[in-house]
Every structure is written in structure tokens, then in C-alpha cells.
């Protein structure tokens, strides 16, 4: 389902403790309802300013037209087979030999809900709920502060398991504050229509050999936003790349920028972000990973175990039978 909402992303923090002004990433910590408006506004601007810093990279290394999603009907984008791969299957290289995909697709093995997976799902649900609820009120012209008062406790609808209440509450409220702060900013400063964000945006990835029902976490101001938990990994950029290719194939408009937002530490959620230029290198890497997976599945060759695999792998049980 496509939901139209207003605003973008960041979170508030009193006097910006912990914010790092690094060139290509930043840290946003904490959440206080006092000063929520100013903080959310400024920090949202900081994140999107970090995207603007990537413009220089784009000028130095413009995207080759043959690596745009709309070139899906010719090599190198044209897939060897159409296997409905998920972006996360291609991009999530937690299992380096890709044995996890083989187990799921060839033996029907199911992932066990590990703690990181459960946390990630709850965070995702909290963000989605906040987007959905704010959209309903803002479209009806409810004042942002009134909307905050109405919505601030609705995170309870998610009924989080014991021990996860704080994670869900803080993630939900951070999202709420960001969107409502942005709505207030547009109203007070610009007096122009607010930027539009879409959550759980569905896009058809079949021209590129992917699923017809891909779901992008959030698109705001043409920036693809993907939420993650756990430590940042280089391959996280590939998920944004996959969505960009699918969106370009569907709409034939360029998608050059993304934002990885990490939410960690359930007891006292810590939010960090990393802007991403969806470069030629990333596009080639994504296509290479897709092609390797297609080859592996077509050739039906069981991959070896990953020598570095972690016991937290959700397929650990099935893999070691
Ligand atoms: S247990 Fe290791 S080898 Fe098996 S699927 Fe998981 S990461 Fe891959």
C-alpha cells in the first residue's frame, strides 16, 4: 500500500548531544519532547545537507546511462533469468557464500526469528505506524503540535513484547517529531506545499529479475531511505542501490541518493545516518551480486558454509542439520 505522508526524517536531541559533523555521516542521539520542534527541524536539515554534499561526487562520477534502471532490457542490467529476487536477498551479504539463499530457495528452510530480526521488525513497525498516523492528521490540516498531542501514545497499539517497549516508544516518537517538525517548518517558513514522503513504497522489480512487490522503507524528496539495525556494513548501501534501480526502471527518472538510518541500542535508542551516492560502482556491484545468485540457483550447486558465519544467523539451525 502506498501512503502519502508529509515530511522527512531526523530526530530531536537536546542541544544536539552526540551529533558529529563528519563529512559523510552523523549521529543523532536521544529524544526529548521539549524543544522538539526546533531540534527536529534543524537535524532534518543536517541530514539532508549531508546529501547535498554528495552532489560533488555525482558531478565527478556521473551515472552511466547503461547502469540506470531504465536500461533493464539490455546488458549489463538485463538478467539471465527472472527469479523474483528480493532486494534484501541480493543486498544482505551476511552469509558470504550466499548459502542462506540456497537453503531458503532449494530446501524450503525458514529463518528463525532471532533477537536482531525481532528488534528490526519492531522498529520498522513503529516507523510505519508513525508515518501512517501523521499522514491522516496532516492531510486534514491538523496543527502539528495538536497532532503530536493526539498521537504521542499511539505506539501502544503495537503492543510490543516485554523489554521492547522503550525501543518502540522512542522510535515511534522520533519519527513523529521529525515529520511534525518538518510540517511546522514548511508552514511557518516557506508557506509552500510540504515535501512529500512515501512509506512502504511498492515498486515492481521484475524487469531487473527482482520481485514485483519490492517495498522501499521511505522515499522523501527523491531520497531513498532505508532503516537498519546493527553495525553498519558496506553492503548496506546495496539495498538502496537495488531500490534505486527498480524505481528508475519503473518511472524512468534518476535516483541518485539514499540515506541509511541506523537505530540501535533498544534501551536508549541511538540513531545514526549515512548518506549514499548511488554510484556506478555500487550499481555494478549490485548487478554482479544479482547475477552470481542467479547463476548459483540455476546451476543448483550447493554453496559451502561461510567460514565467518555467526550463531545469530537466522538459518543457523537449518544450515547445520
Ligand atoms: S549458518 Fe553460516 S553458512 Fe549457514 S546460512 Fe547462516 S551464515 Fe550462511
TrEMBL record:
Stored InterPro entries: CRISPR-ass_Csa1 (IPR009260), PDDEXK-like_dom_sf (IPR011604)
Transmembrane intervals: none
Pfam families listed in its UniProt record: Csa1
Cofactor dependence: Mn(2+)
The protein's name: CRISPR-associated protein, Csa1 family
Species name: Thermosphaera aggregans (strain DSM 11486 / M11TL)
